[in-house]
Specification:
The protein is 62% helix and 0% strand. The chain has helices spanning 2-6, 10-25, 38-46, 48-60, 74-94.
């Protein structure tokens, strides 16, 4: 949504959205052996989608407690806060609210 408001054309907005989607999806396609090590762990934790999926999977499938893997929630919470802040700051620039007069 914010990309559509900032982009000069629909083509640019679609291109950027597709690139962001692919960038978030790429770490999930790593082979099993590539998901080991500190670099892979960093990539998986930095991606808010993968980190949230990992956290929920540990709770639902592996039956961990809610607090065992809380460190995986850093990037999803950070992404949510940053995106809400951007939306609040950018909204007045692109939206105008007109009051409806009472009849």
């Amino acid at each position: 949504m914010s990309r559509s408001a900032l982009a000069r054309s629909n083509r640019l907005s679609l291109s950027v959205s597709l690139f962001v989607l692919l960038a978030l999806f790429a770490p999930t396609q790593l082979p099993g052996g590539a998901k080991q090590g500190w670099a892979a762990d960093f990539l998986l934790r930095a991606n808010p989608v993968t980190a949230g999926e990992h956290y929920i999977g540990k709770i639902v499938i592996d039956q961990h407690s809610w607090t065992d893997d809380v460190s995986w929630l850093i990037s999803p919470v950070t992404a949510a806060v940053v995106l809400v802040a951007i939306a609040v700051v950018a909204a007045p620039r692109f939206l105008t609210l007109e009051g409806g007069g009472s009849r």
